Amino acid sequence: MNWTAINVTFQLATLTAVILLLVGLPIAYWLTFSQWRWKFVIESVVALPLVLPPTVLGFYILVAIGPHSPIGRLYTDLIGHPLPFTFEGLLLASILYSLPFAVQPFASAFDQVDRRLIEASWTLGVSRVATFFKLIVPLSAAGVVTGIVLSFAHTLGEFGVVLMVGGNIEGETRTVSIDIYDEVQALNYAGAAQTALFLLVISYAVLLAVYALNRKVWAIWPQK
Amino acid sequence: MIVEIEKALGARFHLSAHFRMTLNPAAVMILFGPSGSGKTTLLRCLAGLDKPDRGRIIFNGQTWFDRATKQYVEAQHREVGYTFQEYALFPTHTVAGNIGYGLGALSSAERKQRIDEVLHLLQLEDLEQMRPNRLSGGQQQRVALARAIARRPALLLLDEPLSALDAPTRVKVRGELRDLLRRLEIPSIVVTHDWEEALALGDEMVVLNDGNVLQQGTPQHIFNLPKDVEVAKIVGMETVIPGRIAQAIDGLVTVEAGGVKLLAVSQDAVGSNVFVCIRAEDVVLEPVGAGATSARNHIPAVVKDVISMGALVRVDLELGFPLSAVVTRSALEDLHLDSGVKVTAAIKAGAVHLIPRRSAVPAL
Q1: N or C: chain B end with fewer CB closer than 10 Å?
Q2: Under a CB-based contact definition with an 8 Å cutoff, are residues B286 and B347 in contact?
Q3: Quick one: what percent of chain B has pLDDT higher than 90?
Q4: Which value, in Å, is the radius of gyration of the alpha carbons in chain A?
Q5: Predicted pLDDT of residue B362
Q6: Dist. CA B282–CA B278, nearest whole Å
């Protein structure tokens, strides 16, 4: 098995999940509680990666961070090297690609929280931010964990976006799924099978954890 | 406290509430009205959970809301204690955790002390470590109150505090709540549509219907002297019938209603059209041919129906107009009351309440 690829993949998935936790919670909070009438526009943008082919998404990200775009030029000026075909570029692409997998479970969990509980917290003098961490997040624990785990698992298995934005650089951007593809191209079915099985087992274990956790949390605090 | 607010809810409903409340000495104000009258919306505006469209709310010299000067104090900074109809206890916290939830500004020792005080005050000591879903309705209600008063609010807002309880518990908790409100000496506003609750808890009362304040006064005053037929119907006056004043002597009038002459206390002139309002509690039933009593009205009546109301029984009578009386079970047995039985209905002149009626008012 290609342990370097596995290492890259897990680093990418972990960082993606952590960053999506930090970025996704405020986005989900806003999507759930904002009264803005054009909110659906942002909701649709966040959900776009669910329906777009990864190559399309990857293509736009590549163009957006490429040397001809302002973002790409700014990054090159600041850091000293261009963003495409690096781990950082791949990380940015993964975050965008997995955004709905984090935000949607967060938002639907927030939506389940009884508004009166939130209002009760406010009348007890607790600020909106403190209410979010003291009450909304604990009550949405299952949804928050689901979002983190799904974005982690989704990143583990991504292929098209990686190929478009990251390329296939050993130790930098070659992830497990790319490695499997390479092995098959080289007609090394035994190697591909090993890595594929590894990915299957990990993904299944992650989903098992999510479903088991959801059951447990609902059993302790029936929502209604 | 000065409340003068307007708020539209959707296209159909418009709340327009103007009233004042005395804060010193701390009084219990009842917001009374049928469901959909705007009581809860008004309470939410006072708590800072809903924002009025227009007007102002001034509490103890502090402007909570003023559309003209764009002042608005958020719920977090109003120092109110609010209880929700279904209590809204935090399922993730224990009873003690719920009570201490809003006490983040205190040191942990002070917080512990305050929680213990409130637990003791509401007799919740044994339930300290329980989760809300393990509590009975009455216990949840006490925890909700405990949580609301833990921060020593300047104003207590209770939204239908007893409505989620079953009838026997409600009567018990109502007594406890009354004692507690007396002891706390925090100005309180209690939303209810139950006249017994209003009479038991309130020092002051505001009657709301369709988003409008119809009458303000002491609960007793409003129940006994509803300003008009609308208020009378809302507060649950059992008998409201049209009549006409036939005679007036020294503040006592004879009013004709449904072919019956009743003596009432009124300053209305002869010939005035009125509504005659009689509460079922004020009607005494006597066997036919009983001796004289202090009641001035003795009217022969026939029992139409007998309806059980728990410990009491409502007796519907026909005496030229329909009239309801409320008696105890033992009285029912002693008088052998049943459909078709003839009795005499005795009503004191002071209990026959007359509300001036314009001919434009539709008959009931």
Answers
A1: C
A2: no
A3: 56
A4: 20
A5: 38
A6: 7
- The per-residue pLDDT for A219 is 45
| List of chain B residues whose C-beta atoms are within 8 Å of the C-beta of residue A128 | 76
Do residue B222 and residue B251 come from a single domain? no
pLDDT of residue B363: 37
Confidence of residue B174 (pLDDT cuts 50, 70, 90): confident
Do B278 and B297 sit in the same domain of this protein?
A: yes
- A174: three-class secondary structure by DSSP: coil
The predicted pLDDT at position B358 comes to 54
Specify if B361 maps to a domain.
Answer: no
* Pairs across A and B, CB distance < 8 A: 62
Class (C level, CATH) for A3-220: mainly alpha
**Nearest C-alpha neighbor of A96 from the set A34, A33, A27, A40:** A27
Q: Taking the model in full, what pTM does it have?
A: 0.79
Do A126 and B47 lie within an 8 Å CB cutoff? no
Say yes or no: ipTM exceeds 0.95: no
Q: Look up residue B182 and give its two tokens.
A: 């007396």
* Residue B164 near residue B86, CB atoms below 8 Å: yes
- Give the model confidence (pLDDT) of A43-55 as tens digits: 999 999 999 999 9
Cα B65 off chain centre by: 27
Quote the pLDDT of residue B128.
93
Of B233, B250, B267, the residue that ends a domain is B233
Nearest CA in chain A to B86: A116
Q: Which long-range contacts (CB under 8 A, 24 or more apart) does B95-98 make?
A: B95/B119, B95/B124, B95/B127, B95/B128, B95/B129, B95/B130, B95/B131, B95/B132, B95/B135, B95/B143, B95/B146, B96/B128, B96/B129, B98/B132, B98/B143, B98/B146, B98/B147
Q: Residue B128: give the domain boundaries.
A: 2-233
Q: List residues of A whose CB lies inside 8 A of any B CB.
A: 114, 116-117, 119-128, 130, 134-135, 138-139, 221-222
Closest CB to A221 among B80, B82, B92: B92
| Claim to verify: residue B140 and residue B191 sit in the same structural domain | yes
Whether B328 and B220 share a structural domain? no
> Domain count of chain B?
2
pLDDT at residue A153 above 70? Answer: yes
Q: Is the backbone of residue A125 left (phi > 0), alpha (psi -120 to 50) or beta?
A: left
pLDDT category of residue A96 using cuts at 50, 70 and 90 = very high
d(CA B288, CA B290): 6
pLDDT over threshold 90, residue B292: no
